[in-house]
Design brief:
Elements lengths: L1 H9 L6 H6 L1 H22 L10 H6 L4 H11 L2 H18 L4 H5 L2 H6 L4 H11 L1
Length: about 130
């Protein structure tokens, strides 16, 4: 998943614009697929509600040291990560996994209503390492 993010981010360099313009039918779906893959995977990894899927929280359930477990949960819920985790969940619930008809028809609005930065994604990936 981290590799998907960093490839996607690298492909957004301005020097590649002419290649994208010349071969948009190839690059548009490649870049979109990379983005959707890392966003969906990252949203699932931080899904706290669904105990039936493998996530950071299902892993933490197995941690015997309650103090360490609570410290990790508090860290995940800290301001540094909170916005990105919330927004990823909104992306997943409205566009990536479950198709909200409004956002399917107005797909640019997902980015406008649920923004996060590349730095926030990098922070989440760093947290996982």
């Amino acid at each position: 998943m981290a590799s998907q993010f960093f490839i996607w981010r690298r492909l957004h360099r301005t020097e590649y614009k002419s290649a994208y313009d010349a071969r948009g039918y190839f690059w548009a779906p490649v870049i979109t697929t990379l983005q959707h893959a890392f966003l969906l995977n990252l949203a699932n990894i931080f899904d706290e509600k669904d105990k039936s899927v493998l996530s950071v929280f299902t892993f933490l359930e197995e941690l015997k040291d309650r103090t360490k477990k609570q410290k990790l949960i508090d860290l995940i819920h800290s301001a540094k990560y909170e916005n990105a985790i919330k927004r990823l969940s909104q992306w997943r619930n409205n566009m990536l996994a479950h198709k909200n008809v409004h956002f399917v028809l107005n797909w640019k609005e997902v980015t406008a209503r649920f923004p996060f930065t590349g730095e926030e994604i990098e922070n989440l990936l760093e947290l996982l390492t």
